[in-house]
Design goal:
Elements lengths: L7 E8 L2 E8 L6 E4 L10 H7 L5 E4 L16 H14 L5 E6 L1 H12 L4 E7 L8 H17 L2 H11 L2 H6 L1 H12 L3 H12 L15 E6 L7 H10 L3 E6 L6 H4 L1 H13 L2
Length: 273
């Protein structure tokens, strides 16, 4: 196992045949580790990293294939992404982390927390869900894969931001919208199509909610069209030690659309742990 002692930006660690890039900032006993959604990278956690780094140790990493992490040789799956997360925690030589996952980051976190509960002191599940894809959702993903293979990423990026953001954010937060579009366009089409397949093939984790005993914060944009609030309500019902907050005027990217409110919830949750 590779042990990493460095802190700062764009540190690398080799896990399961991939090179993972991560930022490790600030100081604190139990790090807060952020897992991004699809198809983003660690920079999508910038408002949270900046806000918390003065008082806590915060870590955000690029999932294999995204940002500055290499794709490795394994076929993409939520389970291998979760294996990478566990290896990263081991490499950091910390006993436990407080982990925060948005959407696909939440799928990864629920998968990892089910198999390695001892690694997590608390969970933050943002704009996510525990269900698997319906047959219709799978079909949509396979259609998108074909569209990307024939037409490239431009239409995919345009269509994605329309779904990701609340209508008002599309008009008033143009800089954030453009940044997300840029991240999508700078990701390799192979990583995007491979991850779409991984998302379509993921197992549900709803069966495991009852086993989660650590404090869990659930956050969701009220206007989230991709993982609607009802899915967060379901998580809240299933996880005994959980708190749910819905965020006004936010779609699927609640951490970027309403960063102040998101950060306040995070800060409060962490401060009472
Ligand atoms: C994400 O934001 O990670 C994705 O939208 C998740 C999904 O498509 O299921």
């Amino acid at each position: 196992m590779e042990i990493i002692k460095a802190t700062g930006r764009d540190i690398t660690i080799h896990v399961n045949g991939a090179t993972i890039s991560y930022d490790d900032l600030g100081e604190g006993k139990i790090p807060i580790l952020f897992i991004h959604g699809f198809p983003f990278d660690k920079s999508s956690w910038q408002p949270q990293m900046e806000f918390l780094k003065t008082s806590h140790r915060v870590i955000a990493y690029d999932i294999r294939g995204f940002g500055k992490s290499t794709p490795g040789n394994e076929k993409a799956s939520i389970s291998i992404f979760a294996d990478d997360l566990i290896k990263l925690i081991d490499g950091l030589q910390v006993e436990k982390v407080i982990a925060c996952g948005l959407s696909m980051g939440g799928y990864i976190l629920l998968n990892a927390a089910n198999r390695y509960p001892e690694k997590f002191a608390a969970l933050i599940l943002s704009d996510t869900q525990c269900i698997a894809d319906t047959p219709e959702a799978k079909e949509e993903r396979y259609k998108t894969i074909e569209q990307i293979k024939t037409g490239g990423l431009n239409d995919f990026a345009e269509g994605s931001v329309k779904n990701l953001f609340y209508q008002e954010s599309l008009e008033t937060k143009k800089e954030v919208v453009e940044k997300i579009k840029d991240i999508i366009l700078s990701t390799s089409p192979e990583t995007i199509t491979g991850t779409l397949e991984a998302l379509a093939g993921r197992d549900e984790t709803c069966f495991s909610l009852d086993n989660i005993s650590v404090p869990t914060l659930i956050l969701c944009g009220k206007e989230d069209k991709i993982t609607p609030l009802v899915q967060s309500e379901f998580l809240h019902k299933g996880i005994k030690n959980s708190t749910l907050h819905s965020i006004d005027k936010a779609g699927h990217l609640s951490n970027l659309e309403q960063p102040n409110e998101f950060n306040e919830h995070l800060n409060h949750f962490i401060s009472v742990l």
